[in-house]
Each structure stands twice: as structure tokens, then as C-alpha cells.
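quick one before i forget lol
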Amino acid sequence: MLLCKVFIEMVVGISKKLNQLKSLLNAFLEVDFTRYLKDIDFIKSRVFLREASRMSSKLLVLFIGNSLFKDDRIGLIVGEKLKPILEGEGFQVEVLDKSGLSLIDYIEGRELVIIVDSIITSEHQVGEVINVDLDKLESYSVWSPHYMGVPETLKVMEELGIPKPEKLYVIGIEVTDVYTISEEISKELEERLDEISSKVYEMIKSKLYK
């Protein structure tokens, strides 16, 4: 009789435990895990944006050009189009109608500097956006007064002990005429202006994590 009573109590105890497990299981199944997944995605996106903002705050983008000469103004035009977009993402942007030694005030001691300007290499189609090899800047300088200034400016900074940018990238926009005085750019550039601006934007963003 005692055994029966003990057995019944065990069965009742097990039954209670099973009911508790069933309740927990039902509660678990009713949880909307999509909300938590969304929260995780939100947290990940915030972390990414914070990191991107931290990196972009160290980056200076210089769009340079010469508003007097035909295609040499392309850097200024693209800069004006992209400036509000890049600044909205935390970048520091300057659109400068000057170059050479005047760049020192902007690039001195910077961690990362990107210069965007016109270039003639005769190796690319007009309107092509290219990464310029810094070792080739001097060979391109004959075509652009701006590229004459960049390598010389860096050399002067080195000789005077002025801190140079830790990283410097030059993005060139292939053009055809940088000597004709005109308020208009070449037809080839005008037709590809949106495409050029988009490519420059993507190339700038790619430098963040290079």
C-alpha cells in the first residue's frame, strides 16, 4: 500500500513537471523571434554606421580644379554634386579652385586625404574615373597644373618638416581639354556627368577600408 502511494506521488510529480515544461514550451513557441532578429540587425547597422562615421571623420576629400579652363573644371562640378551627400555621411569635403602649395593648409597632418581632379593620361576614354598611381603623378603633370602642384607640394612639406598625410589617394577623371578658356566642359563629359559622379562616389567610399 505504501509502495502504491509513493508510486502515485511520483506520477503526480512527473505530471506536474511535464505540465510546467509544456507551459514553458508553449510560451517559447509564442515568442516573436522576428522582433529580436530585427533588433540584432538594428544593432549591427548602428555599429556599422558608427564605425563608418569614425573613419569618415578622419578623411578629407578635396575636389580641385580651375574654373577658367574647359575640362579642368570637372573636379569642381563633381565636387559640388557630391559635397552634400558626402557631408551628410560625415565626411569633410572641400571644393577648391586652387592647388599647389595652397593645399598644405588642408592636407597637413591628415590621416587620410583623397584628391579628385581632372587628368589626361591618353590611356583611358574621356570621362573614365581612375585611381592614379602616385609614382606617375609627375609624368602626368605636363597635362595638368594641379598635378604639377601635388608632388611638389608633398616634396616641400617633407623638406620643411611639415607632417604629410599618412595616406594620400588621387582619383583622376580623364579629360581632353584643360587649356581652352571656357565655362563649359566637353560634350563627352557632360553626357557622362551622372555616371562620373557615381563612380567617383563609389571610389571614395572604397578608400575608407582600404
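fyi The two ends are 81 Å apart (CA to CA).
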